[in-house]
Automatic annotation (TrEMBL):
Record protein name field: L-lysine permease
GO MF terms, alphabetically ordered: amino acid transmembrane transporter activity
Keyword DNA-binding: no
Annotated transmembrane regions: 29-51, 57-75, 96-115, 135-155, 167-194
Subcellular location: Cell membrane
Annotated membrane topology: Multi-pass membrane protein
Keywords: Cell membrane, Membrane, Transmembrane, Transmembrane helix
UniProt keyword Lipid biosynthesis, yes or no: no
GO cellular component, one term: plasma membrane
InterPro entries tied to this protein: LeuE-type
Amino acid sequence: MGIAYDAPIGLANLFVINAALTQTRRKSILTTIIIIFFDVTLAFACFFGIGAIMKKFAWLQLIILLVGSLIVIYMGINLLRSQTTDISAGDSELTLLKTITSAFVVIWFNPQAIIDGSMMLGAFQVTLPQSSYPLFIAGVGIASILWFIILDLVVSKFKDKFNAKVLRIINLVCGVIIILYGGKLLFNFITLLIK
């Protein structure tokens, strides 16, 4: 279940892939650890009830959808506008604070991750006996750790195969996907607002 929660290509995966391609090995691993931390904390929150809170307060869901969609669109536009440099040079401009802030936004301000995680993990919570909660959520956390570390290692291993032109194409494709994803979230917000 943990792999099913993390494996679909989403913002967190794109964040880890981009870090593995553009940052030094040390920064890439640090970025992956930060993503894992926020991903696991979101999984815990989803499992133990953030979805129930959002269902109870429709206005909260609307706020999360609106703010999240605008942030996601903004991130996609920034990715489209970013200039690609030589991959081997690493990314010296990304500070630890900016990495933490971006990772937090990618995970916790992503309404689709909150909604999907709440539905997927919250649904499992209902079907499990309470005594198995710790084992289940620990398994989800371990799967998250393994998934993101393996993703980072594989992309880092083969990043020499990418030149600046290929990386620019990857950034453009990812940027467009992220903008479309944000647009879908914004459309969901408008649909809910109209109802």
